[in-house]
Amino acid sequence: MDVLRPTLISIGGRVYRKNIVQEQVQQQEEEEDFYTGPSDCADEPCDAFVVEETEKGFQCRVAVPSPFYKYIIGKKGETKKRLETETRTSISIPKPGVEGEIVITGQQRGGVISARTRIDVLLDSFRKKQPFTHFLSFALNQPVIQEKFLQFKEEVLEKCSQDHGVSSSLFQNPAKLHLTLGTLVLLNEQEIQRACDLLQECKEDFVDQITGGKPLSVEVAGVEYMNDDPAMMDVLYAKVHMKDGSDKLQVIADQLVERFVASGLMLREWDRVKLHATVMNTLFRKDPSAEERSSTVTGKSSFKERESFNGRNILKLFENFSFGEVRLDAVLLSQRYSSDASGYYGTAGRLLLH
């Protein structure tokens, strides 16, 4: 059925079929092969990317973060050799650790386009396997919220500590309370700058119009869980809603993710952004700085090792618990596994709402 219904990969608005190569199973971790159309690429869009004409033929440049070079080279250089042979091109890759561009040259324009397309598909595949490095967030670590969160923690441990799996190690660091809009894999300064620039474009294109240039007043109240069985929870989160009853926060979140997904900087995880502030998470047992990334390859092994907790009583006793009100004044490009002076995540960029 994989042959009849191959995996489809969308890159830059174009859809490709992933080709399974059984005889190269032992190299699956280092390289993958893809079908990208006829060998002469006659049906490839000419304006998909810039191909320059040179004295010796044609040339195309592609900016690639240095950690990805090894995937284009492949085991013992086999991926690069195969790409060059099948597309009749020459592929020049910078030295390991040196940020730069991969340069594809060839006598036929179609061959250069084919090589570039295959490299794009390879990069997209391997990017999806990388642990995320940054995420878009709203900070919820204002003093009033932190104080109420610590009260919540104290009362939960006082009233529910006898319930299976409930312990102090499950609770979020109050200095890192936040809403996550979406996660990103940014592997060099150029990609971080692209994300920062895109935030500013979003501010000009739609955010200012939605907010009217004012912070968003929200209330953090009530708790909810992520899976279907409250007796076996992995994540408990606080709910967030606009004080004025509008959907401005949801609209901004959805449109930001839509723009970042379209740019290729973010993977789509949900049809709509699930606005939630994690307060308890079984990932915190082993890693207090852990961040959830649901439905991704990198997160699956973590779920197997997690000891769920019985949250029935917590839901019953704290269903309407109020964590306070707060004014959200910025969308932050937050860096995973980092801290600033306040204890919140390090900030690589921001979109001011006012």
Automatic annotation (TrEMBL):
**GO MF term set:** RNA binding
Q: Which GO terms describe its cellular component?
A: DNA repair complex; nucleus; transcription regulator complex
CDD domains associated with the record: KH-I_ASCC1
Known Gene3D superfamilies for this protein? Answer: Cyclic phosphodiesterase, K Homology domain, type 1
Mind telling me which InterPro entries this protein's record contains?
AKAP7-like_phosphoesterase, ASCC1, Cyclic_Pdiesterase, KH-I_ASCC1, KH_dom, KH_dom_type_1, KH_dom_type_1_sf
| Domain K Homology intervals | 56-124
Coiled-coil spans in chain: none
Could you list this entry's UniProt keywords, alphabetically sorted. RNA-binding
Which example biological process does GO assign this protein? regulation of DNA-templated transcription
Q: Which domain of life is it from?
A: Eukaryota
- Signal peptide positions are none
Q: Which SMART domains match?
A: KH
Kindly provide the name given to this protein in its UniProt entry. Activating signal cointegrator 1 complex subunit 1
Source organism (scientific name): Coturnix japonica
Q: Which gene encodes it?
A: ASCC1
